[in-house]
Design a protein that fits this description.
This protein has two helices and nine strands, in the order αβββββββββα. With about 110 residues, the chain is mainly beta. Strands 6-5-4-1-9 form a five-stranded antiparallel beta sheet, with no helix packed on it. It has a two-stranded antiparallel ribbon with strand order 2-3. The longest helix has 7 residues. The radius of gyration is 20 Å and the shape is globular. The protein starts with 18 loop residues before the first helix and ends with a helix. The relative contact order is 0.18.
Length: about 110
């Protein structure tokens, strides 16, 4: 029920999302995320593997896996890293585990001296 004109007031017509927002979900990865900083280099530091997922969601399809020591570049969005050189997202931390650590750039350490 619900909607305009059917007499059922339990679900007003304005509560329904426009159809185009439902059909664009798969292509809206960047639109769903807050603005991020410039791409940064990260290292897989957890002992094991980290999944690369299609979307920034633990239930999203796993499209790749990175092993300990792998270097990736991407933009951080909260607890997710959106990869720059390939499709996908990686989680930065999971519970008490740090999965990815930011690699310090040589220029940043030189400027501190």
């Amino acid at each position: 029920g619900g909607g305009a004109g059917d007499g059922d007031k339990s679900t007003p017509a304005e509560a329904h999302a426009p159809l185009e927002s439902l059909t664009e979900l798969d292509d809206a990865d960047e639109a769903e995320l807050p603005h991020a900083d410039a791409p940064e280099t990260w290292n897989v530091t957890v002992d094991g593997r980290v999944n690369v997922r299609r979307r920034p969601d633990n239930d999203a399809l796993v499209i790749d896996v990175k092993k300990t020591g792998a270097i990736v570049t991407g933009r951080r969005h909260g607890n997710w890293l959106q990869l720059q050189n390939q499709a996908g997202f990686m989680m930065v931390k999971f519970k008490a585990f740090t999965l990815l650590s930011k690699v310090k750039s040589p220029n940043a350490t030189a400027s501190l001296r």
